[in-house]
Amino acid sequence: MSETSIVAAEAAHFGAMAGDWWDPDGASAMLHKLNPVRLAYVRDRIDQHWSVDECALRPLTGKRALDVGCGAGLLCEPLARLGAEVTGVDAAPELIAAARDHAAAVGLGIDYHAVGVEALDGAYDLVTAMEVVEHVADPAAFVRSLAARLAPGGLMILSTPNRTALSRLMTITLAEGFGRIPRGTHDYDKFIGPEQMAELLSNAGMVVSDVKGIAFSPTRGLHLSEDLRLNYLVAARWLA
User: Is 8-238 assigned to CATH 3.40.1700.10?
Assistant: First the structure.
């Protein structure tokens, strides 16, 4: 296993976006559009995994959540509002500084660290890594490190672009080409398809419990779908 999942150039690229991370019209605008979609999926998986009332306001009360590659806290903050004791880690110190400032401003107590997941100890009931696995040094080692932090009976949720012609067109050619995403954010050669993701999870002792696509249409924008070609979310649990 590599000593760290962090790629210095990737950390620098995203760290440079820290100044306007929370601006829905800034460099991270696409993440702001994506976040409600993936949060809806996270909430559904929480309800299903722990048999929670879907109307409960704080379904993660009493549970510990870890968001890896947390950026400036777009997912950490909703997880905290759902009742979790949240830890967020990111490779970019600039993003962690922005995350701490924003959490303090809105009155949320979130434990942020500018480290790779390999530097953590302890176990978490929920582990998330959204749009991260395609940016790390060694995806297999990274997934094993995520699994090492997951408590027995826990839930892991990942999201990533699929390795398809459509994903390449939409994510790199169009989104980066027209400035919707900063140029150089993605490397198609690092994209991971659902079958490879399932294999990475299996090799870490886990089993996929659900997969859902994130699709785009002019009328609906980004939305959950059975179409996995653009981007997808995967939920996993320990193999019984």
Answer: no
Residue whose token pair is 């997969």: 211
Q: What's CA 78's distance to the chain center, in Å? A: 13
In terms of DSSP H, where are the helices of the chain? 8-15, 29-49, 76-81, 93-105, 139-148, 165-167, 194-203
What is the SS3 assignment for 126-140? EEEEECCHHHCCCHH
Q: What is residue 190's DSSP assignment?
A: G
Taking only the tens place, the pLDDT of each residue in 30-44 is: 899 999 999 999 999
At residue 181 the predicted structure's pLDDT band, cuts being 50, 70 and 90, is: confident
pTM exceeds 0.90: yes
Encode 161-180: b = buried (16+ Cβ within 10 Å), e = exposed.
Answer: bbbbebbbebbbeebbeeee
Task: Enumerate the β-bridge partners of residue 37.
Answer: none
The Cα–Cα gap between 76 and 113 comes to 12
Q: What is the pLDDT of residue 180?
A: 83
